[in-house]
Fold this sequence. Notes:
Blueprint: E1 2-10, H1 20-35, E2 39-45, E3 54-56, E4 62-64, E5 73-82, H2 85-93, E6 103-108
Antiparallel strand pairs: 1-5, 1-6, 2-5, 3-4
Amino acid sequence: MKEFMLIFRLKDIADFKPSPEQMQERMNWLAGIAAQHKLVDKGNTLLPVRGSAKTVKSDSVVTDGPYTEIKEFVVGYIIVKVDDIDEAVEMAKGNPIFKVGGNIEVREVLKRD
């Protein structure tokens, strides 16, 4: 089996205010993955960028937050263990983030044994 990171993105930081019902829907989605024993890391929700992010560049230059031209914000991730990327994509399709205009990037994790 391979591991894939599902990276959750939203277009507007204002979208980052889930209701209790939306949080429960997300937890139910995660519980379904965990019940299949395919959840490797439940990940974390990331705080909004304002005041909680820095970008480190070459020559030790540090700036506040990500670049201003970013059109989407990474708001969280999980890592799943599945047979292939197609299975990870199918798993991602069930996430409720799509109801608020978000998207999910699916990337294989390079394991170094």
